[in-house]
Design brief:
Elements (H helix, E strand, L loop, with lengths): L14 E2 L2 E2 L1 H10 L1 H21 L4 E10 L1 H6 L1 H8 L4 H4 L11 H5 L2 H8 L2 E2 L8 E2 H11 L1 H7 L4 H9 L5 E4 L9 E4 L1 H13 E5 L6 E7 L2 H23 L1 H34 L10 H34 L2 E6 L12 H41 L1
Antiparallel strand pairs: 1-2, 3-9, 3-10, 4-5, 6-7, 8-9
Helix pairs in contact: 2-15, 13-14
């Protein structure tokens, strides 16, 4: 670095007591301008490379307004409270579903991402629909920039992974396919999931309750497809969680109702057959068997009617607990790109280069001043 400083350069002291000497500061920067300019040029070239070779991406999304029964009952009071960022429904225990603040956690969960990435989408560079797993694998083989980064910036990690292959990461999940089983996820798959999750944005406004879902992708049509599927899965997960208890109750009542229905039909059939067989007999009125069948029939009829009412109530409960989602802004295929913002990248590169160059310059000044003092102290000791 010394070669970038002019011969006989004498840097002034910047701090004068508690004050900063701006003139001395500017003179020091001027004396070390080669260092500052060199670092700025490096940052500008790097920023230009990133701006030119970064893939163009498009953003597509939707705006949702989740509604639950509890929020409807609170009416205008809940609306006024929401302006202050207060959720009265949750305070009074009206809403037992998933809080909107946890929606990003749902999207980032393994079951959600696995189901999303197992869905097939159409991509402009491929003839057949591909899952996101397949697309990420093909993208990794085709991506020139990714390959360059792997063998330049990330070369140490590439060598490390080649010598010490990463171990699989184990997740325990609950799903309809493998309840309570252990699922082994390799590092490559986990990396693909992290890439997909990084491209999905879920933001919740505490003031209005609106949920903003957006997806960033190189293919505008694929971006819209993935965003639409993300919204559908998010709604599905929220509805399943919200209605889980009442749905299980409905299944139990339906199962019990079907059993009683079968028993009721059997006893009804047996009673009618007994009546037909003894139609011309007066003693059927005092027959013990007739009274037994009739009592069983009346009992099963009462149980059947009671379960029928419970079944209807359970169905109404499921409908009542099912949250409604109003689509304020539907998913659309984007026309304009969202990234890279080349002007912003260049401005940030210049600013970072200037700041880094300034810090580096003063680091060099401090180093040489400290070295000079150290040598002077040693010379005085020898003398």
């Amino acid at each position: 670095m010394r070669k970038y400083l002019p011969e006989g350069a004498h840097f002034r002291k910047v701090m004068n007591g508690d004050k900063v000497d701006l003139l001395a500061l500017l003179k020091n920067v001027w004396l070390g301008r080669k260092i500052v300019v060199s670092i700025m040029v490096f940052f500008v070239i790097t920023g230009l490379f990133i701006a030119l070779f970064s893939p163009v991406k498009y953003s597509s999304g939707a705006i949702l307004l989740p509604q639950v029964e509890g929020q409807k009952d609170l009416g205008q009071i809940s609306n006024l409270a929401s302006l202050a960022g207060v959720n009265l429904a949750s305070m009074f225990g009206e809403a037992e579903g998933i809080p909107p603040d946890l929606y990003p956690n749902i999207v980032g969960s393994y079951p959600f991402l696995h189901e999303l990435m197992s869905t097939k989408f159409k991509f402009k560079n491929f003839d057949e629909p591909l899952t996101l797993y397949q697309y990420k694998k093909e993208e990794g083989n085709r991506g020139v920039l990714r390959l360059v980064r792997r063998y330049t910036i990330r070369l140490p990690w590439t060598i490390k992974d080649a010598i010490f292959p990463p171990k699989d990461i184990i997740y325990e999940i609950e799903s309809s396919e493998a309840d309570g089983e252990i699922v082994i996820v390799g590092k490559e798959t986990l990396g693909h999931m992290e890439d997909v999750f990084g491209a999905i944005s879920v933001e919740v406004s505490t003031r209005t309750g609106l949920v903003y879902v957006s997806v960033l992708h190189e293919d505008p049509f694929a971006s819209a497809q993935i965003a639409k599927r993300t919204v559908e899965l998010l709604q599905q997960y929220i509805i399943e969680y919200r209605t889980k208890q009442v749905s299980e109750n409905l299944k139990f009542v339906e199962m019990r109702f079907n059993e009683v229905q079968q028993q009721f039909n059997n006893i009804q059939k047996e009673l009618y057959q007994f009546r037909d067989a003894h139609r011309n007999y007066v003693e059927e009125r005092i027959s013990l068997r007739f009274h037994q069948l009739n009592d069983e029939y009346l009992l099963m009829q009462s149980v059947h009617q009671g379960l029928a009412q419970q079944l209807e109530q359970a169905r109404l409960a499921v409908k009542k607990e099912t949250p409604a989602f109003s689509i304020i802004e539907p998913v659309k295929v984007p026309v304009e790109k969202s990234s890279p913002r080349r002007a912003v990248i260049m401005i940030v590169s210049v600013l970072l280069g200037g700041v880094t160059g300034f810090i580096t310059l003063y680091g060099i000044i401090v180093y040489y001043n400290f070295k000079k003092l150290w040598l002077n102290d040693e010379a005085s000791i020898v003398a």
